[in-house]
Amino acid sequence: MAIGFQFILTLFSLFSVPSLTFAFAPILPRFPSSAVSAELKQRSHSSQNGLYRTKFFTQILDHFNFNPQSNHTFQQRYLINDTFWGGAKNNAPIFVYTGNEGNIEWFTQNTGFMFENAPSFQALLVFIEHRFYGKSIPFGGNKTVAYANTSTLGYLSSTQALADYAALIIDLKKNLSATDSPVVVFGGSYGGMLAAWFRMKYPHVAIGALASSAPILHFMGMVSPDIFISIITQDFRSESENCYKVIKGSWDLIDDTANKPGGMELLRKTFRICKSDDFGPDSLEGWLRAAWIYTAMTDYPTPSNFLNPLPAYPVKKMCEAIDSSVTGNNRLAKLYAAANVYYNYTGKATCFDLDDNSDPHDLGGWQWQNRRNI
């Protein structure tokens, strides 16, 4: 299965395919393609000198039950930066990032807001990795065992994660003799939900929370299941009506092309797909859908490299590629040019491997959390 994010999803409108409703997250192809995954791996797993120090905390497996293995422990990773901290004697604050679904280094290296504001507040920066992600794997750090079945994955939940954060923060403050230093938690997306919930559930630990892009009430039965894709549709449609129509019509176009003699080879060549025995219209459509969705999710006003290297306003760039006269009336070429903004903005990729199941950001447990509603 593919990597997803926390939202209820019914694919419709711009992504006009047979209706599939998922409780909490869009099911997408893996990202990114292997053509760029090596670069992402190197970037997200490399320590940046001076940015943080890596530490580990002995965390309890189960905070709420008294089963035989409840007292088992695992090593939970956290990153710390005390460059700007005013110290315990001054009751200087502690900013804590409530890690979400992935390698904590990846999030730390893309969370400039905390680093930008730490000097003004003389804050200590702490980034805590979520259990079952990155290097914070229970059961001896063995992912095969940790992800084996429900008896082990049952310990992967937001409730347990919040208790982890509380235990680590309290212990850290004690060790720093900083029991009077106020704590503010930060997070984005699922991490933002965790930050908000943490403030609600542990008000004695954190005096405040900053939750960015945090759909804390976005659960089945509480909001429209169409809202996520509605917003993405509007992102593209607001740039260009033609752009919207080309993408909406692409699913029928790809299916019709695939059913024609030589159609699959035409699709492979047009979209620069690496040789694959499993290449088909479904895999191609999933690959394109991932590009549209992830680009809309990272449609920042400045260049970024959170998921893939992207220019500023990448949705606008995609629509410009679709509306360009260079490709004439060739809609397949227009779609490739747009997808290339997401998958190959650096121009380094020569082909795209749709069979790549790499997980450069250690997101492996996310589908389990989606299925069990976090």
Automatic annotation (TrEMBL):
One of its GO terms (molecular function) is serine-type exopeptidase activity. One of its GO terms (biological process) is proteolysis. Keywords: Carboxypeptidase, Glycoprotein, Hydrolase, Protease, Signal. The keyword S-adenosyl-L-methionine does not apply. The keyword Repressor does not apply. Residues 1-23 form the signal peptide. It comes from the Eukaryota. This is Lysosomal Pro-X carboxypeptidase isoform C. It comes from Glycine soja (Wild soybean). The lineage of its organism: Eukaryota, Viridiplantae, Streptophyta, Embryophyta, Tracheophyta.
